[in-house]
């Protein structure tokens, strides 16, 4: 089974037509890969579907805007993969999961 | 359908919030200046307007799901397929289903039929935002009343 990072990288490559080999764990989705907010909607939909989660994009954006978090925490791909793993773990730990 | 006001939807036939589906009807006018240019001697509804009709149908569904707390704005059109001509005077039945409600966005799949025949389909993504102006909210309430939006559907859980 491929890693969370690999799954995200494949989604980004397919959604944004970015060569897969240029997408690295240390890549920043916005600053390095140039993904804009519209493309990120598409990516978020694909990630939500693939992992059965609802990424809290609005909460993350608010935290960045309020200075409580940096974009790197959410948009460097390895960090994004870690956040997704946390969301999947939380979902699996929830009652009835 | 009031093309001059970009009102593509006439009537909500069914809104099922449990299944997150909506069915609406829209009557294509028999005459309009659009048909003079699109096309002379062969008038048909432009695909962009059919896509807008699917978007407006989806929009009412999303408004219902969100209990009018946010306004959906069309952001992405995918896999829009015009499968057959739509002519002046035809009655459209438009169905939309919510595929996913994400954080700040929603995705629907919509179809237009004439009778039983499928004429168009698309996957649509909407950004969800607070109403940017009170006048828009007032307008949407008036439109909801006009097209028979079942307000009781969003007042009971």
TrEMBL record, chain A:
Listed Pfam families: PP-binding
UniProt KW Ligase keyword: no
Keyword Coiled coil listed: no
InterPro entries listed in its UniProt record: ACP-like_sf, PP-bd_ACP, Ppantetheine_attach_site
Keywords for this protein: Phosphopantetheine, Phosphoprotein
Domain Carrier positions: 2-88
Protein name in UniProt: Acyl carrier protein
